[in-house]
Design goal:
four-stranded antiparallel beta sheet, 2 domains, mainly beta, about 260 residues, single chain, 18 strands
Amino acid sequence: MDNSQEHCTMFNENGLHVAFGHLDDGALALLHFGPAPFVPATVGDEESRKRRFRVVQVHCSGENQCDHHGEKHTGGSLSSRLILDRIDDERNSYGRKLAIVQRDAERAQVISHLQFYDGLPVVRSWTEVVNTGDETLGLEYVSSFALTGLAKEGEREWDEKSRVYIGHNTWCGEAQWQAYPITDLGLNRLGGSTMKRVHLSTTGTWPTSSYLSMGAFENTETSDVLLWEIEHNGSWSAEISTLAGTLYMLLSGPNETEHHW
């Protein structure tokens, strides 16, 4: 690790700043990921708020989502119980690699992998779930990348400075990129949270039948841009909505609700 403060572990690699918060019960929060250094005031001191900044979202069959979620994939039952085991920090032929190992004492171990690449402000992210219990574990949703606090930097509210880039795509109509103020996609700041989401998805073995499996989010006040791509030749899902008074993004491959995986 590059440095740490009380209850916070931070990494800086190739111009990307990552900050993890350690909660009192042993849970871990991903408080920051982006090109700007972490400013704790953008998250606040309330532990109940930090708890919403999950490293990963995992939901199990037969359990309720612990959130007022609508169609959103927040409040994953298993991820809400995860406790940090360790953060493995190593280097390989690509660059630095972090493995965030968390565990649910009853059922599973969840490993969030972050692979950095030397000389590039890029990270590859994926999730590994290991059944450590004695019974079959049904999974309905597993995020490959989860980030809360997309537009927390700056002075303006998120609905005034958030722009989403969508790559519309189809046969003979490839790569039709459009930029949208997030309110033009129906996501408005009405109270602390909403059940509405901006959702992109495809089902089947043609991953670009309606959209490119990539997109971008821009904070127009700070000019920070997060460009993402889902590296999968089948079903995938991407959603942006609100959580804890801020914006989050979830990226994944197939799931049970949308794709009946």
